[in-house]
UniProtKB/TrEMBL annotation:
InterPro entries: Glycosyl_Hydrolase_73, LysM, LysM_dom_sf, MGlyc_endo_b_GlcNAc-like_dom. The keyword Iron-sulfur does not apply. Residues 239-282 form the LysM domain. This is Peptidoglycan hydrolase.
């Protein structure tokens, strides 16, 4: 009996320890690491304003929303090109196409400009939309810059896109066809659409930007900021004069180098009447 009792106690202890260890493991598995998005930095100039103006002069029928998108996000595409070796023209054209010029629901509400889905291992924000299937999971970002960065990491970090990085940076046609071949999009016309956007809006010009151009662009952006900043007017404190016996508006105006009309205007006077002890604004 005593042996049986000891066996029962030991089994109970073992079961209790196993169940408690299972709880701890589950807790750790459910714990999600938060993705911290760095605050966007000031973007350099890549002559995107001049580029858009030139396009507008040459072709009045170009989509104004696309032109606005280029003006706003071309610097991001160039920055990503130099860090990840993806042509700026391709990144920009994909952003234009996938986000509907930044105006799609996914782009405007979730800052997802490339239609990147959650996939396994994604621990950032999520949003659900109908795409190839109903209610698919898409990535959600705090900043558009985070979407561009994630797009670069998405392409450079997957084996199926490895062949693209053997192409020249200026070979946007090869990149467009390679993206479709690697399975980025299901649309058969995807390469043609990208190439048309690149050629209609001459996005290949952004592929020519060197690192030296980027450094110059940062200086230009700072200079533009300084020019655009409204000049702060120095606040001038109003000065007052207390009317004394024998003072007139004329004598006061002469004393302070102003005019009777200005004194009347500054003090809301309807006539020239003054009273001793009255305080006048003399600027």
């Amino acid at each position: 009996m005593r042996v049986r009792f000891l066996l029962v106690v030991m089994v109970s202890v073992l079961l209790a320890s196993c169940s408690s260890s299972r709880k701890v493991t589950t807790k750790k598995q459910n714990k999600k690491a938060k993705i911290v998005e760095p605050k966007p930095e000031k973007l350099p100039s890549v002559k995107q304003i001049q580029h858009v103006r030139k396009l507008e002069r040459g072709n009045k029928s170009l989509n104004r929303h696309t032109l606005h998108y280029i003006r706003k996000y071309a610097p991001l595409a160039v920055l990503e090109m130099h860090e990840y070796k993806i042509p700026a023209s391709i990144t920009l054209a994909q952003g234009i196409l996938e986000s509907g010029n930044g105006r799609s629901q996914l782009a405007s509400k979730s800052n997802n400009h490339f239609g990147i889905k959650c996939h396994t291992g994604w621990k950032g924000g999520r949003v659900y939309h109908d795409d190839d299937e109903k209610g698919e999971c898409f990535r959600k970002y705090k900043y558009v810059q985070s979407s561009y960065k994630d797009h670069s990491k998405f392409l450079s970090g997957r084996r199926r896109y490895a062949g693209l990085f053997k192409l020249r940076l200026k070979d946007y046609k090869g990149w467009a066809r390679g993206l479709k071949k690697a399975g980025y999009a299901t649309d058969r016309k995807y390469p043609k659409k990208l190439i048309k956007i690149i050629e209609d809006y001459k996005l290949y010009e952004f592929d020519k930007f060197t690192k030296k151009d980027l450094k110059r662009g940062k200086r230009i952006a700072k200079e533009e900021d300084r020019r655009e900043e409204p000049k702060k007017k120095k606040a001038t404190k109003a000065q007052y004069y207390e009317v004394k016996k024998g003072d007139t508006l004329y004598s006061i105006s002469k004393k302070f180098g102003t005019t009777v009309d200005d004194l009347k205007k500054w003090n809301n006077l309807k006539d020239n009447t003054l009273s001793i002890g009255q305080k006048l604004v003399i600027k």
